[in-house]
Write a structure and sequence with these properties.
By secondary structure, the protein is mostly beta strands. Helices cover 13% and strands 46% of the residues. The strands form 2 sheets. Strands 2-9-8-4-6 form a 5-stranded mixed sheet, with no helix packed on it. A 4-stranded antiparallel sheet has the order 1-3-7-5, with no helix packed on it.
Amino acid sequence: MLPRTLRRTFPLALLVALATAACDDETGPIEPDGGLEITLAPIALSLTPGSIEEVSVNVIRSGEFDGEVTIQVLGLPAGVTAAPLSIPAGDSFGTLTLEVTATAAAGASTVTVTASGASVDAASAELALTVVGAGAPG
């Protein structure tokens, strides 16, 4: 059995040791070793109702991160959908497919294309979309 003084200070010493282990030298908490960047080509598209368009997606991994990257599109206008896209570990490029229904209304919008992976901060890029020509009334 531990001496009384040691029994009282051991939990505190353990807590200090754990807190110290969670810090990387003197720089603070340990951060993930890696990051993401995303670029799109083109960065603006004119869409015609009833069409299918493609956007090239390039992800740039940094540090030690080399995992799968999931691509999501946020803020799509009514009548425009994006097919699911994942870029496998080790790959840098993917093709985002946008489908425009025949009834999509004409108009301009800006959507956000987001790249995310395990244990890294997400990255995003904007894509300008313009649906040209009115779709059939729905």
